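for ur thesis appendix - Acyl-CoA dehydrogenase. copy paste whatever u need, i formatted it the way the template wanted (i think)
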Amino acid sequence: MNTNDESAFRAEVARWLAENLAGEFECLKHRGGPGDEEAYPELRKAWERRLAEGGWTGLGWPRAHGGRELPVMQQVIFHEEYARAGGPGRMGHIGEGLIGPTLIAFGTEDQQARLLPGIRNGTTFWCQGYSEPGAGSDLANVRTRAVRDAGSGDWLVSGQKVWTSLAHESDWIFVLARCEPGSHGSKGLIFLMLPLDQTGIEIRPIRQMGGGAEFNEVFFDGARAAAADVLGEPGDGWRIAMALLGFERGISTLGQQMQFTHELEWVAQAARDNGSSRDALVRQRIARAWAGLRVMRANALRMLAGAAQASEDGGTALQREALIYKYYWSNWHRDLGQLALDVLGPLANVLDTNDARRTRLQQMALFSRADTIYAGTNEIQLNIIAERGLGMPREARGQS
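the 3d part is after this line
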């Protein structure tokens, strides 16, 4: 695709968003992101259907599965323009960005035919059942159990998942569970897909300091996963789970970075408005944050190029470029949150619902403290980089 074609596509995306992110959807602009995921859930589900009607879901999916099979650069352009327009946090992200590509890569024809259309059409919503009280960053310590029902061949699931985003708004959950008694670590795991509306599943909200409850605990007491809803083979769950994490570090990361750009602009504008921009150190920190975003984008494009090449070669493992991504962005974002508080000064400690920018910066700063913890702590990320990326000896770990 040449530069003129890219410019035309960018204009098409921007025009569609301007026309559609209006009226009843106007209030969704810049809402529903991390720390704000409880905002307007039903309206954001309606927005997913609007996106699907406009042909803006499944952009990179193969046409055979209902996608548009767009080249990487066009997908990048869409996500950048989406964030630039203030597009809301995607209720369909887990479905379209994670389990959808995993189904395409590993699912049976039956699974693909049953489950992909609802994701693509914005009518079926998914959540992720990975973390447990004793298996968060160290996912291989998972203890949720899956036992085969000899009569039906289905799998009965018992255990607990935690920090499950928007489970209360979802229709399905995918779960990593231990199916081989006595197994340890990454061995003996199974990747299951379960409908949430069934006996044996209880969803309990986790109330946060800000009053919201976008995260949940999910308890399984003999919940049933149909034999036809095992993704991959029993015992192969770790490989499937790791491939899914590779999709998580996909093209939507460019949209995340555009949101970071918005936040940096809010910080800079706040500094100009209250005069703190006259402080040379504040200007230096803003400049460093801007440079950090450029580095983040360069690595993301390198990461996407590596993933595209690996896909052509038939690989699904995380590329070395992807191993550093989470560590880099989470630390950058945490530092931006601290910069926001420093720029706001004493007002950072004062709530004022009439000051939208200050409220957004306060929410961003508070939630960014969790960035270096969820989805793998800094310590776990450094282990991954050392062991998988650099080939260094594994850290000693005890079995539990």
